[in-house]
Every structure is written in structure tokens, then in C-alpha cells.
Amino acid sequence: MSSMVFSSVYVVCSDAAGIAGNIFAFVLFLSPITTFRRIIRNESTEQFSGMPYIYALLNCLICLWYGMPLVSPGIILVATVNSSGAVFQLIYISIFIRYAEKRVKLKMLGFLISIFAIFALIVFVSLRFLDSPSRQLFVGYLSVASLISMFASPLLIINLVIKMRSVEYMPFSLSLATFLMSLAFFVYGMFKHDAFIYVPNGIGTVLGTLQLALYTYYNSASREDLRHPLIDP
């Protein structure tokens, strides 16, 4: 009886962590809306780059495939979060292409076609040539590589904050959502005993913690500077 209760609690906690991760990820997926409102209003992509959304789409597609029952049974919440992410990235890319100049438009279309070709090749190889355990390892390693490559962005932001001694380009809400999402999926991966989930999200949690620590430090420093101006009246 006690083992059944423990098992039920374990499943509930695991699902709760996964659902929390989906919610925090949804907040992150909404974060570029301000940028795209500006693009639509000005009818121009200006100096914005569409590449982060291309990379994010590939990452979401690979992780979506990893979370599918054909590859990794029992982690459907990984598939749901990445299916939502893929839809958001497609919307953002479509808007970007709509308002980009012709040269950039053609370049972005080429990248988009390449992303779908790469994803189709991954699906084909994993289904055609690999058995179930090998398929999970193959797609799992690809998903980890993809997720770790996405950490380049927070690392660049951390470097910028330290260099400029300012949190102007690191919004607190975005850093908090990144930390909470990574932490939730780290816990979810631990519950599922899946290193392909908890390792990259563990790294994400550490980076998120560092971002929040930097925000606290430099935000406090900025307030202190305001209290003590360099030139006294």
C-alpha cells in the first residue's frame, strides 16, 4: 500500500515539474512579441537578426522528436513544450520573412528549408536505421548538443553585463523565467532518470542562477551610484 502511495506521489511530482516547465517556457516563447510588434509597426526588420529564431526552431524540432513516444516513451511533456515552441518560432520567422528586404528574405527562406530538411533527415535516419534504444541515444545526444548550443545566448548576455556593469540588456523577468524553466525541467529529468533532460537543463539552471546573481549585484550597484553621485552639489 505504501509503495503504491509513494508511486502515485512520485508521478504527481514528476508531472507537476513538467507542467511547470511548460508554463515557464510559454512565458519565454512570448518574450519576442515586443520586437515583432515593432517590426510590424515599422514594416521593416531594421537591424534585427532572424537567426536566433532559426536556431530556436531547429532546437525545438529536435527536442520535440526526442520527446515523442516513438523515441522516448513517458516524457510527453517534453514533446508538448517543444511543439508549442516550434509553432511560436514559425510564426516569428514568417513575420520576419514578410517584412525583410528581398536579399534577407531569400536567405531566411533558404535557412528555413534547410532546417526542415535536416529535421526530416534526422527522423528518417532514426526510424529507418536504428532500433529503439539506439534511436533514443542518437536523438538524445542531438538534443543535448542543440540545447547546449542555445546557451551561447545567455553566455553572451552575461559577458555583456559584466563588461558594461549594467543589467540594461538583461531583463529580470526573462532571466527569472529562464531559470525557473531550466530548474523545472532539471527536476523533471531527475524524476524521469533521463540524463538527456537533466544535464542540459542543469547547465541552464546554473546559468540562470548566475544571471539572477549578476542582476542583483549590478542592480544594487547602480542604485548605490545614484545615491552617491560623483559630483556633490
Describe the structure.
This protein has 233 residues and is mostly helical. The protein is built from nine helices and no strands. α1 runs antiparallel to α8, α3 packs antiparallel against α6 and α4 runs antiparallel to α5. The longest helix has 33 residues. It is globular, with a radius of gyration of 20 Å. The protein starts with a helix and ends in a 6-residue tail after the last helix. The C terminus is likely disordered.
Task: Describe the secondary structure blueprint for this structure.
Elements: H1 2-30, H2 33-42, H3 51-67, H4 76-99, H5 102-128, H6 132-150, H7 152-164, H8 172-191, H9 195-227
Q: Quick one: biggest sheet?
A: none
Oligomer: single chain
Radius of gyration: 20 Å
Stretches with pLDDT under 50, minimum 5 residues: 228-233
Instruction: Provide the succession of SSEs.
Output: HHHHHHHHH
Globally, the shape reads globular
Bin the strand percentage.
Answer: under 5%
Give the helix/strand class.
Answer: mainly alpha
